[in-house]
Amino acid sequence: MKKNVWFLILALSSSSFAFDGQPLQYEIDWGPVTLADATVELLDSGEVRSVSADIASRGVGAWFSDFQSSLEIMRTGDGMQLLNGKSTWGDALSNLTVTWLPGDEKPLVDYYRSKPRDYEITPVPEDSVANTVDPFTPIFEIGRDLNQTKRCEGSYRIFDGIRRYDLTITDGGVSELTSDDAADFRGLAHRCDITLTRIGGFSTKKGLFKFGESEISRTLYLGEIRGHWVPVRFEISAPLGTAVARLINLNRAVAAQ
To answer: Which of 89, 158, 226, 247 could form a disulfide with 232, with the two C-beta atoms 3.0–4.6 Å apart?
Structure first.
């Protein structure tokens, strides 16, 4: 459950449309129940591009796995990328650092986990991590160029230090998002349809929440907040239902417009 929630966030560069670093609040739901809360800050100042995200289980999500996670990603003007992640669940913890150095094809990975996994993961081919990017690069590149391109599309080789996968993003046109909750985003949004191809680092364990990629659909909606295109809704649909990460506290988010 924890990994699926993170993908909602993780799944959840013209400077005039840069991200401004103001915090965005998200609630992650599965049908009528709440799984987790998340706070995400996106900053693109030209020389430095960064992401910070904090997520904590809540409601039914805490029943499955009481966890807290934080993630920081930074790209500097010389091309260096740095990903730092920390997670705690129960009495266990993990720390992850991934560094992409300018001129090096493959990133450096430093990973610590206090308890071994109780499941196996698929191997990550060594050569497959060359020329990869962090999980937030697609959001930055598509979001900041959307006013010019008018399309949500791209192909990316993603590595988060554990999982290696390819993303293909295709344009789904413009949609009108509605909500009965005044705190939610309402209005025009660009729809991005996401296809994921697993390369390695994914659990081999079969269980209630394990489905093949052909059974899963992922849809990201980008809305305009304070003049910047940011994620306002992300949906993962599988045979047992749909998990949704949605931007909330919108009145506070647009106060700076």
So the answer is: 247
